[in-house]
Amino acid sequence: MQVFNRYVSTRSLTVFGGELLLIFGSVALAAAVQHNAVLDDNLWKIALVTVVCQLCLYYNDFYDLTLVHSNRELIVRLLQAAGAASIVLAALYFTVPALMIGHGIFVSALGVFLLAILGWRLAFNYISGSMKLQERVLFVGTGETARRVARQILDQHEFAYRIIGFIDDDASRVGERIVNPAIVGTPADIERLCAEHHIDRIVVGLSNRRGKLPVEELLRAKMAGIRVEDATTTYERVTGKILIDDLRPSWLIFSDGFRVSHATRLMKRTIDLTLSGVLAVLALPFMLLTALLVLIEDGRPILYQQERVGENGRTFILSKFRSMKKDAEKGGKPIWAKAGDDRVTRIGLFIRKTRLDELPQIYNVLRGDMSFVGPRPERPFFVEQLAKEIPFYQQRHTVKPGITGWAQVKYRYGSSLEDATEKLRYDLYYIKHLSVFFDLTIVFDTVKVVLFRKGAA
Q1: Residue 137's beta-bridge partner residues?
Q2: How far apart are CA 409 and CA 406, in angstroms?
Q3: Separation between Cα atoms, residue 34 and residue 42, nearest integer Å
Q4: CA 397 to chain centre
Q5: Virtual CA dihedral for 397, 403, 406, 408, nearest 10 degrees?
Q6: Per-residue tens of pLDDT for the chain, all 457 residues
Q7: For residue 140, which of 86, 71, 191 has the smallest C-alpha distance?
Q8: Which residues on neighbouring strands pair with residue 161, listed in sequence order?
Q9: What is the β-pairing status of strands 161-167 and 227-230?
Q10: What are phi and psi of 230, to 5 degrees?
């Protein structure tokens, strides 16, 4: 299902909801038993502890079911989150003693909810791993698109899908392994396979459908209550990005999304101005210190200004704290920055890792050149190159670029054609599902990226 325009699996929501109740219940029980505390008077304090604990769990990727799949990883991340929550709450209680429920209550509750969460997650993994609770998926087609989507399903544990097999026109290939599941039949076998394996979803991954799409068989399956969908749609839901390889323009034209109302644009601009104003005030001391450090190490100029491509292809001048040497582009030809770039200064390496070099872009947001959230703006030289190599690349310029974005929080820093292609998949997903709430969740995720230095060069 979609939550704030992001696809979230039912499994993740179930895990999150269950652990929210366990944490809240553990703290409430400790408060009631240990101090006979009146719950009506302390509900908001218990809620505060619950929010802090779940934030720490989230920021430790505890709800990434693909990452936290083994029992060892589960225990390690649970203990890390519990330690972080203890530190945060201790700091809050020291600063504002009135927030404390009672002495020793959190420590008592900690042991209870650690055991409860561990037991709940182990039980959930065991039960959800049952074949009966997984959606059975049949792929029609064996081309690269079908294989890519199938590999993605096999690699992740967020969505409870089980691939039964593939359908291919060539009967002689039945039994041949594709990715891992095999070819199990031809289009004529679809009805039999659906009944035999209780298929829940058919994913069509044919590169060339003209004359090959088994219309009658798929129509009968659809009428029988089986979900039939394009592989691109499946990929979008499972990954949070759009598969641009083999993507037909008709899919973009007829699919939902890619529409931003005037009210959404107005609210987005209001949030841009608010966040930029608040960030400018909070970051002012860090900006002054950064400017001083850049000046001391490598002199002037402190700011590095570049032409970038913005909304509808219009160019603007973007400002950043200079993180490279003055002669970084001696020949005058733009050079893509890459990880471990020897042109980066010592201070430049630090401000890139901490994202301090991005702070002057607040001015670009206030001017209206950029939004707080959006695709990263690229230089005209690279845009021209990438547009020739990557299909639909120019479509990322239909919205304002941003300081942070969906691609930035979901993908590592990269400077190759493959990296640009992967980021475009995320950018197109963002443009398709653009909303104010989606923006706020990206800002929320950006905090995690900055704190744990993910994706920085």
Answers
A1: 163, 201
A2: 5
A3: 14
A4: 20
A5: 110
A6: 667 677 778 888 889 999 999 999 998 888 887 666 556 667 888 899 999 999 999 999 898 888 887 888 999 999 999 999 999 999 999 999 888 887 778 888 898 999 999 999 999 888 877 766 789 999 999 988 999 999 999 988 788 899 999 999 989 999 999 888 999 999 999 999 999 999 999 999 987 665 578 999 999 999 999 999 999 999 999 999 999 887 888 888 877 778 888 999 999 999 999 999 999 999 999 999 999 999 998 888 899 899 999 999 999 999 999 988 877 666 666 666 666 667 888 898 899 888 899 999 999 999 999 999 999 999 999 999 999 999 999 999 999 999 999 999 998 777 788 889 999 999 999 999 999 999 999 999 998 888 776 654 4
A7: 191
A8: 135
A9: unpaired
A10: -75, 145
The DSSP symbol for 327 reads T
Preceding peptide of 301 cis, ω within 30° = yes
3-state SS class at 294: helix
The predicted model scores a pTM of 0.87
Q: For the purposes of burial, counting CB atoms within 10 Å of the CB of 49, is it exposed (0-12), middle (13-18) or buried (19 or more)? A: buried
The runs of H, that is alpha helices, within 225-344 are 231-239, 249-254, 262-298
Name the residue with tokens 């690699």. 155
What is the rounded distance in angstroms from the CA atom of residue 67 to the CA atom of residue 428? Answer: 25
Sheet containing 201-204: give its strands across. Answer: 183-185, 161-167, 135-140, 201-204, 227-230
Tokens 């872009």 locate to: 361
Q: Residue 238 is encoded by which pair of tokens? A: 């499972």
Burial of 454 (0-12, 13-18, 19+ CB in 10 A): middle
Phi first, then psi, for residue 304 (nearest 5°) are -115, 120
Across the chain, which distance is largest between two alpha carbons, in Å? 74
Element housing 139 (H / E): strand 135-140
Joined together, the tokens standing for residue 412 give: 């590592």
- Find how far residue 433's CA is from the centre of its chain: 13
Determine contact, residues 381/315, Cβ cutoff 8 Å.
Answer: no
First to last CA, the chain: 34
Task: Evaluate whether 353 touches 345 at the Cβ level (below 8 Å).
Answer: no
Contact of 109 with 37, CB cutoff 8 Å? no
Could you tell me the two tokens for 187? 């289009």
Amino acid at 145: T
Kindly report the length of the chain. Answer: 457
Q: What are the angstrom distances between the C-alpha of 265 and each of 121, 259, 427, 440?
A: 41, 11, 17, 14
Under 8 Å between Cβ of 23 and 53 = yes
Q: Which two tokens stand for residue 250?
A: 């008709």
